[in-house]
Target: MerR family transcriptional regulator
Amino acid sequence: MKIGELARRTGVSERSLRYYEQQNLLTSTRTPGGQREYPESAVDRVIRIQELFAAGLPSRKIALMLPCLRDSDGGPSEIATPLLVEDLKKERERIDRMIADLHNTRDVLDDVIEAAEG
Model:
């Protein structure tokens, strides 16, 4: 598929898709005319990349992770290294801290709303 179709199917801009390629997160082949062509599996790959960016992971960590994930189900592949696993555990802990902070912020907002309504 061409870059425009991949962008349409994933909701990701063409500019972002080109950035993903620059960061070695996504690959394409080229037509004789120089246009990018992506396999069907690129849809799942782009969705996975978006999920990882949304979790706050930087592109360099995503680049290390992607070879260790199966695109279709996001499960681990057999090539995940112990060092990568430790790094990912640290990321999970960071995300857990962010979630806890958000819960605390919501609780404060609930108190303010209750006081304002009551």
User: Anything to note?
Assistant: The CA atoms of residues 51 and 57 lie 9 Å apart. The mean pLDDT is 88. The longest strand covers residues 29-30.
